[in-house]
Amino acid sequence: MTFDELFDQIQQGKISKEEAQRHFSLDWMETASRYILDVNRGMRTNIPEIIYGEYKTLEQTIELATKLLEEHPRVVVSRSPFYKELNEHFKNDFPVLWSVNATVIGEMPATKGKVLVISAGSADHPVTYECEVILKAVGVEPLVFEDRGIAHPTRVLEAIKQGIEQDVAAVIVVAGMEGALAPFVSSLVPLPVIGVPTSVGYGFRAKEAALTSMLASCAPNLTVVNIDGGLRAAVVAALIAKNR
Amino acid sequence: MTFDELFDQIQQGKISKEEAQRHFSLDWMETASRYILDVNRGMRTNIPEIIYGEYKTLEQTIELATKLLEEHPRVVVSRSPFYKELNEHFKNDFPVLWSVNATVIGEMPATKGKVLVISAGSADHPVTYECEVILKAVGVEPLVFEDRGIAHPTRVLEAIKQGIEQDVAAVIVVAGMEGALAPFVSSLVPLPVIGVPTSVGYGFRAKEAALTSMLASCAPNLTVVNIDGGLRAAVVAALIAKNR
Amino acid sequence: MTFDELFDQIQQGKISKEEAQRHFSLDWMETASRYILDVNRGMRTNIPEIIYGEYKTLEQTIELATKLLEEHPRVVVSRSPFYKELNEHFKNDFPVLWSVNATVIGEMPATKGKVLVISAGSADHPVTYECEVILKAVGVEPLVFEDRGIAHPTRVLEAIKQGIEQDVAAVIVVAGMEGALAPFVSSLVPLPVIGVPTSVGYGFRAKEAALTSMLASCAPNLTVVNIDGGLRAAVVAALIAKNR
Amino acid sequence: MTFDELFDQIQQGKISKEEAQRHFSLDWMETASRYILDVNRGMRTNIPEIIYGEYKTLEQTIELATKLLEEHPRVVVSRSPFYKELNEHFKNDFPVLWSVNATVIGEMPATKGKVLVISAGSADHPVTYECEVILKAVGVEPLVFEDRGIAHPTRVLEAIKQGIEQDVAAVIVVAGMEGALAPFVSSLVPLPVIGVPTSVGYGFRAKEAALTSMLASCAPNLTVVNIDGGLRAAVVAALIAKNR
Amino acid sequence: MTFDELFDQIQQGKISKEEAQRHFSLDWMETASRYILDVNRGMRTNIPEIIYGEYKTLEQTIELATKLLEEHPRVVVSRSPFYKELNEHFKNDFPVLWSVNATVIGEMPATKGKVLVISAGSADHPVTYECEVILKAVGVEPLVFEDRGIAHPTRVLEAIKQGIEQDVAAVIVVAGMEGALAPFVSSLVPLPVIGVPTSVGYGFRAKEAALTSMLASCAPNLTVVNIDGGLRAAVVAALIAKNR
Amino acid sequence: MTFDELFDQIQQGKISKEEAQRHFSLDWMETASRYILDVNRGMRTNIPEIIYGEYKTLEQTIELATKLLEEHPRVVVSRSPFYKELNEHFKNDFPVLWSVNATVIGEMPATKGKVLVISAGSADHPVTYECEVILKAVGVEPLVFEDRGIAHPTRVLEAIKQGIEQDVAAVIVVAGMEGALAPFVSSLVPLPVIGVPTSVGYGFRAKEAALTSMLASCAPNLTVVNIDGGLRAAVVAALIAKNR
Amino acid sequence: MTFDELFDQIQQGKISKEEAQRHFSLDWMETASRYILDVNRGMRTNIPEIIYGEYKTLEQTIELATKLLEEHPRVVVSRSPFYKELNEHFKNDFPVLWSVNATVIGEMPATKGKVLVISAGSADHPVTYECEVILKAVGVEPLVFEDRGIAHPTRVLEAIKQGIEQDVAAVIVVAGMEGALAPFVSSLVPLPVIGVPTSVGYGFRAKEAALTSMLASCAPNLTVVNIDGGLRAAVVAALIAKNR
Amino acid sequence: MTFDELFDQIQQGKISKEEAQRHFSLDWMETASRYILDVNRGMRTNIPEIIYGEYKTLEQTIELATKLLEEHPRVVVSRSPFYKELNEHFKNDFPVLWSVNATVIGEMPATKGKVLVISAGSADHPVTYECEVILKAVGVEPLVFEDRGIAHPTRVLEAIKQGIEQDVAAVIVVAGMEGALAPFVSSLVPLPVIGVPTSVGYGFRAKEAALTSMLASCAPNLTVVNIDGGLRAAVVAALIAKNR
């Protein structure tokens, strides 16, 4: 029913107010969903398909990944407790790159651009490696330096130096505890910095201290993602690097 | 002792101030409990008997459910860690509809009215299915669409379209993480929407983000229940649908 | 450019990858916005136009309200610090019903259905009256009982009794402090109850105690809105009442 | 060294400023600890010796309890994970009254006075029973009514009625979730009420909702203890009842 | 309509399910409110009438107080911003005892029993004086020692000594900042102690530190009221003292 | 003193352990500060000099700005309460572009690249305009669309469409309340999105809801800055756009 | 009454259990307060008398200060809103050193030892100056460097260099926002560092970010005081410096 | 490339703006890292090497410790879940002093100075013993008194007396629950006091109550470390004692 038809029916009293209202809403929906085909989100946003694995069973995850791999060159599974089993299942048919937090199944794309990844401590490794894996999956080369906390200023400088030499497009800083590495790095580079606060630490607001600190920093070139949000930082950094 | 008798005793000094005060309070209680028979709460509020199972042993739960089933056509057990054992125990004598969060033991009533249930992701399934089970137990037909997060706008539209076509009386939106599905759906329907924030997510305020978001929304037709409060959302939606 | 044309250009190497990706996204947008006319949200959701007045100047608010009144029979201004000035400005041309939290400019609609509104204390009056004003603006008759806190159980019973006698479709409970009135009322009525926690109180979590309490309640027929969210409670209750 | 001696030494320059200051402090300490004998705290405060068992090993707890029982008629062990083993160890030599939260080893005293204990739900049983055990250990008779939540107002009234009839000196209300039982009971009795918020509940501020609610209540005769603080409520109620 | 009549009408099909359910609920309410006369709450709970003045205008407060004074010997107004104006208005007709937090209008009752009130610092004076005023209004003699913080242990001991000499029935400790005075005093007296955390302090959780501290204390004879809740502490202490 | 000299002195026992340690640290500092000339931070990070004005007096701010303008073509003053006075003071000598949150004094640079700025409501204007001003100051063209909240999906689509048509390099989403606009926009663009949560809203966690929501979102291309952190979002977006 | 006398009375049945218990407690108090003379706390702890001025009137503060100055060479008034009036009142009779947060009235003592004070920004000035004033009042020489935030690493190095050259005994770091200056400085000095988080900042946990960050730091030589707690940091640093 | 060379290239247009900016930053880094050799942090800060063991595998920890022991006389491993296995592994080759929270491998240094350590309860033992172990590892003699909570004032006095007699340089107070021991001890000693709040306790803010309390205290000679931060307290106290 078109809007005009609806209008006429109302004027001629052939339709009750309640029914007209319902049809009107319905019509709007119908129109919208007929035309807005749910085109591939991956294609629209230029990011591999991501399966959020945290609450899924192994069977659900394999089924979903298998289906997506029929139409996509690669798929990312994030936060699955079954990363080892996924590797076992897929490794004969696809290249698999896995970490505790993220697994990529399928061929890696060619890379374009580079991103510098600096972590504060070895305890931040799982999130740091998640960044590395995802950067590769999106097609950007990661340049990774681990265990460069603020307690060792010269080791931080070394990492930044190499990053700038190799012309990285963005910097990811992975840090827990008080997270001071992020504003320190930000003050030294003329680039967008993405802070990934980790849940490493103990005591007062143990899991939130780094996030709090990074948000409160006055460094003007620093943005932040959720705690342990390595994937998100990597995707954003990759979008910056690829479009450079 | 009537109030008059009490009054006389006081005036004639036959009773001390302390005792009089105590008797007076007592009297009030006696009167109240004589007349306010504890009529069946289920009958008064039109909702099946609900056993809160979280802290009860299997034995306590079975005993309580059995006793209630003698007088009621059905009983709901919520949040019991023994949902599987309950099914085993009762399935030969009663129809049982169980989920992780809620189990219904006994015949389902005939349905009157419909409620649309939309969830953001497959991780929200336990709460979504809890809504479905409870809606049936109260006598309303659920129309369920899962995994319709805001990342796929057209899939949301499709669900809403079908809900309006089938003339649902209310909408339940089950969503974790940032919970943005609830205000989005609310902006598209001329109906009461009940948001069920779930504890799905990780990082900063992982379990509270959806609740925070739904409360803060400016959507005027959205109310909220407790985190993972599927049962409550289903009961309220059912009361709306049945009385329509 | 159609998808087919785009596909051809890609295959024939006439377009770079970056440009193609951009056009593709653009196309999707173009299609969507050509077809999804932004039909009147008020008509779609059956709620009067609402101007959020909190951060607007008097001039901005008057201009916006005037414009909306040209096409709508009435407009709601919520949380404007200029509620008195708005009344002065519009009262000669329109009926105005104002409170501290919400002002309605324009003719009130005829009512259909009733909603019971109970408040805990006289300090909750501004929010209670906001509910009353909005219910009228949406076209539902409010039945209001104020100052019926849990300290006076019989006064609560009296209010509920009258509500049920007059066949209300839903109950709004407005309460601050520990908010115990909401679960108490919920346990006594076979109806949807909407709790509006207010910011009345002092001391520990003064402004959040009632919200915390209402969310935590085990009353199965109680949903909640934001603190001091009278408007939202009234709109939802009205949608229930009008469709009954 | 007396103060006078110290003064003289300073005046005559026989002692440096730093040393004098140190001796002075030391002197104060010496005097204090010579005269303030650490008389039995139990005797001074009229409460049985309490061993905080949460972080102690079984061996430590047994050793400490055995030693205290040599000088005291009874000892309380609170929050020990070894309550069962303690019972096994001591039951042949002493009467033992144990619950999940508190164990009393030794003869119970004769009782004087009564305290009413009302709990909201059966999930609150461990804390409720802790109150009962401690009241007996301090020498007061508990009058216990469980599962009397606000959803069943008449069952609450029945409990209060019996409490007043038996002339209790104080009321303990044990309640989780939204804790509304405490202000409701407080509004009905002319007695001190001690609210014990429990950690029963789920969702938003699950463990703190009852505490928040009881603190925020405007009931003037209600005080509160820590979450799950049954022991503390029982001790205070007993002190009130015994001195009446 | 009696329950029997209702039952018959249902059996004979003279009444619809919806209407029956509504009448049933209504009936319950009618019965309850007919018999539960709202007897004077003050008389039932033995506490003077209290007007919560925080959100009321001067006019509302005067009107309410005047009305209550017609039937009661005294009335308490708590947290009124108009305490000075109230004094001016009533002082010719009634004795008035006012403080920043609480005003008592009307004759003070004779006292029975004593309560010890100790405050940590002079900044706690408004809450301390509120305790004093309310104790007098309920009919108990206050014994007040101010500025006895834990930094001066001997001054605390002096206050306690006098309290025990005069045989007080309970102790109120008023303290802000870290509130350590409350557990310290509790460890020294064989009496119920009521802690009143005040909002005095600055920095981290400035207003909540004393509350947190008092709740966390392991002193078994200490209960707590809301922040700055002098009135509540005084009422409870008075109930203990008067019934001794 | 060189390290060698220090080493010799130690070996020959000419220096105490304490002094050596102190000199050693000192030496390290001396070296560092001799070589690390504090080169212009603006030059190093490619961002105009920013004066944090919140706690400075007008005089301090003018003095500092004047001094910086001698060596830099432009200076930014953020969060100064004296933005109007600053305009008055400098407008005769420099072009001034001011908003409530940020003022730019000096010639604007030529622009390179574009950034899309979308805000949810008109209440977000001050932060939105701050983004616009800063983007211009860094040399990027802003494309601004205000008042495009999620309640009007088609208006959002229109803004995104224009942004993609004009080939923006990044998107800034400014939103308060539940902040759902940020994940919604993120799901529709193949670009880095920077969410700026604002402090617009009321009720529960009024000022933090948008931040919580944006952090919790599962949109992989969304990073976040501090609440009301328009400046930081603009600087990061500009760095992306300029290097593209 | 001695303990022996009490014991005899009990054995001979001349005293009731209640009375004996009361006398016993009393006795303990009497003994304690007779012997523990409240010697001057300032003398015992080696710190000037401090008047907490926040909630005191000007009159109360002057009276108290005047009285203390009769017996002490100097007195500190902290957080008085009347610091200017205090200066006016006392400046003719005493030297006065005042800041917004702390005022010292009386002759300054000779200094012994030095403390390095570094602040992050000029907004931290009031707290920084409070440290300076108090250090002088306790008799230690402050070495102050302001506006040395982590954004300017070489300016931080310069300050540390001078501190070590002058052989300071401890370092105070005053910083708001993300407070990263404190762990950075701590990693560079072989000295105790005292972090003073300030309330400078905006947005998320604006006032608590620096505190959270400093507590979470893994720097092993860093302790922390309350937010804006300059006085406490200065006293502790002075105690370290004076006893060196 | 020197700055001069860079300058020339720019003036002669031989280098683009982007490249010059990158080289400039690079240059700065190169210079800095060439001169700032990462000299041994342990030597610079006078504290043994500390391995943060919480997230490391046993193998990683052993490898790292072995490597450090080649160049250092001792190494500290903090918070390793493998403290027992570390002991087994190293005990044949090195002296090992281990506790649940900290393990020291290698010869202990000679001690200089003393520190008093007082704990509130036996539940605080793991943190107390951590302090003891670390003090020894840094070369200071610990004087430890455990289980001296505020409930036993005279036992506290005894500990302080002995500390002052033995001329300790600083006091560490380890306390959970309400942490009142810290301000109490601070009021009695003329020394720096370092409070270590522990996570011992239950109920409301169980793990944060002692921290909150210690920060809020008005004791001027008290600083605080993170919850359960025994290592940090011990290092700071040792730095004070060794430099005395």
Automatic annotation (TrEMBL), chains A, B, C, D, E, F, G, H:
| InterPro entries xrefs | P2CMN_synthase_LarB, PurE_dom
Citing just one GO molecular function, the answer is: hydrolase activity
Biological process, per Gene Ontology: 'de novo' IMP biosynthetic process
**Could you tell me what this protein is called?**
Nickel pincer cofactor biosynthesis protein LarB
Record organism: Carboxylicivirga sediminis
The record's listing under NCBIfam families reads:
LarB (NF033503)
- Residues forming the PurE domain are 113-243
Superkingdom to which the source organism belongs: Bacteria
